Amino acid sequence: MPGSLEPLDVGVQIPYHFRCPISLELMRDPVTVCTGQTYDRTSIESWVATGNTTCPVTRLPLTDFTLIPNHTLRRLIQDWCVANQSFGVERIPTPKQPADPTMVRNLLNKASSESTPFGLRLSALRRLRGLARDSDKNRSVIAANNAREILLAIAFSDLDSDSNFSELSHESVAILSLFLLSEPECLFVAADPDRVGYLVNLLFHSSVEVRVNSAALIEIVVAGIRSPDLRAQISNAPGIFDGIVGILNFPLAYPKALKIGIKALFALCLVKQHRHKAVAAGAVEALIERLGEFEKCDSERALASVELLCRIPSGCAAFAAHSLTVPILVKIILKISDRATEYAAGALLSLCSASELTQREAVAAGVLTKLLLLVQSDCTERAKRKAQMLLKLLRDSWPEDSIANSDDFACSDVVPF
């Protein structure tokens, strides 16, 4: 139950018929099963998912697993919540009903049928997209009806045959970007340069939503294939890094662009032989200037991308030339997460190994204190090893008054990473 309902047993009594017979908590989405008993949707779905085939109350067989929303009971519960607001009870929201499998099949049939008028096909795809956005359960229902194969066919059909068809393709790409694709489905895209080229072209579309959805699908495809050659082929597609960096640089009024952009950039940067193309496209400037705007998980991806690009000469030189690089990386150590610290330390190690000027900048930014704290922390062993290697590298740049205080740290006993 939500925290606001915890004291109810003391302040107010929940009516018996408002409680789920399984969880004994206030029902938020009451549904009725074929035996006539009503349960909270989450509880009965969990009951069935664990292999139970009988009604928990009556013990009768569940011959039909259809869950019928009990709207009357849900409204009574909502009215009761409103009447007891003075006791700290919050009104339960009206739940969105899960997608009906029959309706999903009808929508997919409409969308895929070339004999269906264009407007109805587009409307069906938009309805499917709305359902897919609503919940994981809806996406499961949609996926169970062979939707991904159908949508891939629509997305990559003869795109030049009809100017209207592009809208159907854009909607299909948008829906596909909400799913994880199987490896054969990813190969369907990755193995065809024309399909990859089409997605890259969408990265420059006038609509930022189309651009972001294309970037999301590219990331899903790259992450879903195991073939290094195909990954390299995608990352070598003309303009792909320019398109991704353009999404990263999009104004913050569309925050999804930042999240999808860094996922796609990181996936592409895992291919070593084409990282220089990311540097040439302006990825270094985009990463450094946006590092403070990422959420935690996205910050880790961004820093991992920074470390990867620092491992090639052009990337290392570009980061070293940016005045904010060293101060930001030093500041991040021990601030965001263990992984973020590890990636920041790794990037600094690459930068300082390439330039004495960068070593002096790091020392001036206060890296010594951060590294000495890092090797004593509970951070990852890889982060500690990188810190030890960096401390050893910077030893000649230490201020004299710091050397005497550093003798207790085993900076010479470094294990390569």
Q: Secondary structure elements and their pairing?
A:
Elements lengths: L7 H4 L18 E3 L5 E3 H9 L18 E2 L1 H13 L17 H12 L5 H17 L1 H8 L3 H9 L9 H12 L6 H8 L2 H10 L5 H17 L3 H8 L4 H9 L6 H15 L5 H6 L2 H8 L5 H15 L2 H9 L3 H8 L5 H17 L1 H9 L2 H8 L6 H14 L5 H4 L14
Antiparallel strand pairs: 1-2, 1-3
Largest sheet data:
3 strands, antiparallel
Low-confidence region ranges: 1-10, 401-417
| Fraction of residues in β-strands | under 5%
Helix segment tally: 24
CATH class categorisation of the largest domain: Mainly Alpha
Mean pLDDT, all residues: 88
- Looking at the structure, what is the overall shape? globular
What is the CATH architecture descriptor of the largest domain? Answer: Alpha Horseshoe
Strand ordering within the main sheet? 2-1-3
**Strand-pairing-aware structural class:** mainly alpha
Please outline what is shown here.
The protein is an all-alpha fold and 417 residues long.
Task: Note down, in words, how this protein is organized.
This protein is mainly α. The protein has four domains: 3-87, Zinc/RING finger domain, C3HC4 (zinc finger) (Herpes Virus-1, 2-Layer Sandwich), CATH 3.30.40; 98-179; 190-322, Leucine-rich Repeat Variant (Alpha Horseshoe), CATH 1.25.10.10; 331-417, no CATH class. The protein has helices at residues 8-11, 41-49, 71-83, 101-112, 118-134, 136-143, 147-155, 165-176, 183-190, 193-202, 208-224, 228-235, 240-248, 255-269, 275-280, 283-290, 296-310, 313-321, 325-332, 338-354, 356-364, 367-374, 381-394, 400-403, and strands at residues 30-32, 38-40, 68-69. A hairpin with a 5-residue loop joins β1 (30-32) and β2. α5 packs parallel to α8, α7 packs across α8 and α9 (183-190) packs across α11 (208-224). Residues 1-10 and 401-417 have low confidence and may be disordered.
